[in-house]
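haha ok so turns out i had the wrong file open the whole time. this is the CORRECT one, sorry everyone. sequence first:
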Amino acid sequence: MRFLAVLTLLAALAACTDRPIAVAPATATASSPTAEQTAALGGGNLGEPARAVRFDIAAPPPLPHFRRASLTPPEAPVALAERIVVHKMDRRMELIRDGQPIRTYRIDLGWQTLGHKQHEGDGRTPEGIYHIETRNDRSGYHRALKISYPNDEDRARARARGESPGGLILIHGQPNNARSYERAQKKRDWTEGCIAVRNEEIEEIWDLVADGTAIDIRP
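then structure:
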């Protein structure tokens, strides 16, 4: 009798261990079991071993692919001027590209308009071929591009006369000083030999003319 009782106990334990338990994944959402799935559990008969039931789990939709886009449209490259031509008698300055003027400005010159600059303080704007040497956005004017006057020939000519050739010849905007600005608005050719334009024009020239650009200053 004791042996039979042991066999009965072992059979009961085997029935319990053969009964699998369906466990849904922790991160998945299982759908409600259908009638067929409920019947598959044994129809309520606890004596039958339970069968494993596979619940259909809806797969998550694929994540959308995002592409980072700039909110600012790309700027078109600036077409720089290839050279500058100044016509002193016409008070006109042109920015040239591909042999054609792309911008034209009315200019003011030095107060002595005739002839090439000879020495410091003569009020003349130089004539000849030079280039843009450097630039300054903190000068006494609203931005300035420095012209490469004097060259070796200018220095030699002034030295032969025992004079200084002068320098600091610029293409610049209007004076930053309020009093000088008022005086510049009332007089034509008010500079000491520089080439002056309006402030909005020097802003444009600043962007269109690179350092090293040739400038041809004609009578």
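The mean pLDDT is 81.
again sry for the mixup
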